[in-house]
Every structure is written in C-alpha cells, then in structure tokens.
Amino acid sequence: MSSLVQELQRDALNSSVSTLELLRKALVVATKLNIPEFEEWIEFELSGYSNSQNIPSYRYIEGSVKGCNSYGCRPVSGSKETMSKFSKITINQSIAEVECLISSSKIDQVNFEFPPQKQDSLRQSFEGDTIYLLESHISEVTKISESVRNIILRWSLRLEKDGILGEGITFSIQEKAIASQKDYNVSIYNIVYNTTGDMKMGDDHSINVRAKGDVAFNGALVSGDTGGNVNPQINNISISESQEFLQLIEKLKLLKELFEQETGIEADDKETALEQIAVLENEAKNPKNKTGLKIVKTAIAALKGITSGLLPQSTLLIKGCNELIPQITELFQHIHS
After folding, report:
1. By the number of CB atoms within 10 A of the CB, which of 153, 282, 324, 325 ranks highest?
2. Radius of gyration (Cα) for the chain, nearest Å?
3. Does the pLDDT value for residue 20 go beyond 90?
4. Number of CB atoms found within 10 A of residue 16's CB
5. Does the global pTM surpass 0.90?
C-alpha cells in the first residue's frame, strides 16, 4: 500500500498537480498527525487570509505604481521613500484564486487596484482625479504557489526522515507519537512568517486584483492590459531577474535535499552530486560570468550521469531530477542571457 507522505512528495514535485490539490492532501496528513499549527496555515491558504491575520512573507509582491485617467496610464515617479511605501502589497486571497489568476493571465504584467483608503493616500502624495494601480510581473504571483509547494515538500521530507510515512491514509500510533514530539511548526513559521512583528496586514494593504481574462479578486476589476502609452519594461526587468534568481536558488536547494535524503546511491556518487550542485549555486550568484553557461552545462551533465541507470525511474530522486533539472537549466539560460 502506498505511503501518503511519499505521495505528498511526488505531488509536490509534479507540476501537473495543482497547489490546491497538494494543500488538501497535506491537510489530511497534518490533521491525522495532529499538527494544529500546520493545519491552521493550510486552512489559511485554502480559504484566504483576513486583514487581522499574519500574512506570510511570500505573499508580499512588488511592482511599480501607475496612474490612470481618461488619457491613459502612466508610470508614477516620486521620492524613493514615497515609492517604496506604495510599491509592495500583499495578496490575501485563497490559493485557488491565486492559481486562477496565474492560469488566466495572457501577458507577463498583472495590475493590482489599490483600495479606496490607499487611493486617497496616493492622490494626496501625487495628483488629482486619478486611479492608481500597481503593475507587477506575473512571476511575483507565481512565487506564492511555488513557495507553498516548497514548504510542503520540505515538511514531507522531514516527516520521512523522522520515520513517519503512513500506510494508505492512516498513520500508526507510533508515528503519531513521533509527530507529537517533533517541532514541525517552528520550521513552517520560520520559513513562512517574518517574526519582526511588521507582517500584520492592515486595511490599507488590502487590494483588488484582476488579470487579463476577467479574473476578479473581491472587487471592481482592472484590465491586465490598461492601454495608454505605458512602457511595459518599467521596473519589470529587475523584478523578473530577482525572482528568477530566487526561484533558481530555491530549486537548487530542493535538488540538494533530494540527493541528501537518497539512500540508494553510493556515498562517492552522492558527494560528487552535491559538489556539482555547489558549482551551480556558485554560478547562480555570478550571472555575469562569461563562461557560466558552459560550466552549468558540464555540472548538469554530471548530475544526469550520476543518476542515469542507478535507480528505478519511480524513485523520488529520479522523479525530482526529471522535474527540477530542466527547470534549473531554463532559469540559468534566462539569467545568463
């Protein structure tokens, strides 16, 4: 009979499984193992966060402010302090709504309409009868779903390391006892929440969202294509590059964890694999290296060679490599282009 925890790992690595489905399965595991804080986090992701709840740091997204009137939309400029105040907002909608926004977006840019209170603040800081939007790259929204998947994957790997696998959809008394003695909650909240105390979301952080395709988030919709003489590259290059770098580092960490957890390969092969991942991590931090792509290709080829024929295709490591290595390769091509 299959293990629910290992199913969770496979699903976390399978991009065809939605994050919504993954969260539902994770809720079964957390509930049966009686891990209430993890249950609470999952429920927030499934139902959305209210203004009075802590918002995970991965739900903070950045963008550039635009002002729209009858003449079209234009980027807004101001002091560094003022623009910093308005260039970051939180997304408190459910993961289902977030995924709907991602799948329906036909363009790279998504526009977020500030709520009335924030609109008033912007009009006081700038000018006149203008509707203000925050334009952000779709990758800023995608990171929400990716972060949730990464948290669940790390948690499930930790469960397996502690000897908690489950059989079917049940867990033994011993497994439940182990779970009760472990501090999985701290691991979650250290990853998810900023503990400095400034992550409470006030009313002025609430937003309405719309992407091209009429996807509504709690209010009047704003077109993903706002028209007007707007430069689509404003502030998007740095955001895109930053997000690609973060995604690359995150995927390399996941790949490293998979090799560290795998017991079916020789110690020398594992050591070599970890050395090659370290090479990739170094190249990720040096995108201007002219020979970087050549080094990356060599390291990728070495990783493929290590796993080739050593393990059955059904093992978690092989599935993970098949999923992560193409994504890592593509991200390297972007940051070195």
Report:
1. 153
2. 22
3. yes
4. 7
5. no
